[in-house]
Amino acid sequence: ALIVAFFVEDLHRGSAAVGVFRSFQVLGTLLAGVLLGIYGKGWRSETLLKVSLAIATVIEFLIWNGPSITQWFGYYLILEVALGLPGIAAFVAFSTILQRATPAEYRGRVFSLIGASSGLALLVSVFVGGSLGEAVGPRALLNCTVALEALTAVAAVLLFRKDPRPERASGDGSEVADRGRDTDHEQDHDEHAGQPGDLQAVGQPAT
Asked: Tell me: the pLDDT tens digits for 154-170?
């Protein structure tokens, strides 16, 4: 609802422009899925989440404050396509982190709770937008969503300052290597310890 009001009041566009804008939103999501499938393997989920949230915040800020820069409709279409990549990347990274951190027996309930919370947040946003849209204006409310997304990006940076997985992997590997070296040392010690006894046994005269 706020996007429609934004196009009508701030860009002075009609319903056709809103439909085209939504179409480019879907196009950006599809392109983002392809690019993420090709180039997303080399990224850690925590890093991908932080970078995606930061980029999405900047792009949305440029979109909703675009009337202060230009009225050219192509500007908004280009940014909407570009927004698809960090949007999908942040969703995939968050889902991966949540799935990895949740035990298997609680995973279904946790994801159900996340889905219910998202639906409740959408309901609240629609109510607030309908109640305050005329008094405050769509741009001000849309900038509030940008501020919330910026706070989310800051929280992700603070929460995932350091990824513990490489340390665990390094510790496990070194522990296995140490055990292997200890085993080899014991085998070599047994072989060297057994050789003098064998030679002495061979050299003893028969009685």
From this structure: 999 998 876 555 434 43
